[in-house]
Amino acid sequence: MVGLSEKQEHDARKAAYARWAKRTPATDEPGEPGEPGEVWMPVPSLPGYDASSLGRVRSAYSILRAYSGTKQGRLYVAPSINGRQRSAAVHRMVCEAFHGPCPSDMECRHLDGDPTNNAPENLRWGTRLENQRDRHIHKTGNAGERNGRAKLSASQAKL
């Protein structure tokens, strides 16, 4: 966490783990928009926000509209934190809600390589190396002609 001392970060993670341990799955109540069988879990680092099994995020008032924040297609929402709107990655919120708070030195991995698929079964915490290997496996990295400084395409290189 940016801007926190080591003790403050430790305390924040400890509090997030405690909130996550107390979580209870909740399905949509009558009258709320939702899909049949959609399960909502609280996001430990953002009290008052829930993430769903379909990769959506809601507050106590409504479902937040996701927007594409990067060229890679990752989805973001803008939750209000201490009265200010901040950008937050949907995949991290869903992974945190369903798999627990992010361990230190870990990142969220998309197991199928699709950054718009934010279902909990597609997300896992992993190391930076595992995430880089996933990019190679799914061919979503910038190697070869996908590199912005590439001079030749694959077909030109074969000639």
Defining traits:
159 residues; alpha+beta; four-stranded antiparallel sheet; three-stranded antiparallel sheet; 4 helices; 26% helix
CATH topological fold name of the domain at 37-140: Homing Intron 3 (I-Ppo) Encoded Endonuclease, Chain A
- Please give the order of strands in the largest beta sheet: 1-2-3-4
Q: End-to-end distance, in Å?
A: 50 Å
The CATH level-2 architecture of the domain at 37-140 is identified as Alpha-Beta Complex
Helix percent band: 25-40%
Count of DSSP H/I helices = 4
Uncertain stretches: 28-32
Largest sheet: 4 strands, antiparallel
Let me know the number of strands: 11
Shape: globular
Can you give the mean pLDDT? 83
From the alpha carbons, calculate the radius of gyration and give it in angstroms: 18 Å
Give the helices and strands as they follow along the chain.
HEEEEEEEEEHEEHH
Q: CATH first level of the domain at 37-140: which class?
A: Alpha Beta
Report the structural category: alpha+beta
Quick summary:
This protein is an alpha+beta fold. It is 26% helix and 19% strand.
Describe this structure in words.
The protein has 159 residues and is an alpha+beta fold. The chain has a domain of 104 residues: Alpha-Beta Complex (Homing Intron 3 (I-Ppo) Encoded Endonuclease, Chain A). It is 26% helix and 19% strand. It contains four helices and eleven strands, in the order H-E-E-E-E-E-E-E-E-E-H-E-E-H-H. About 3% of the residues have low confidence.
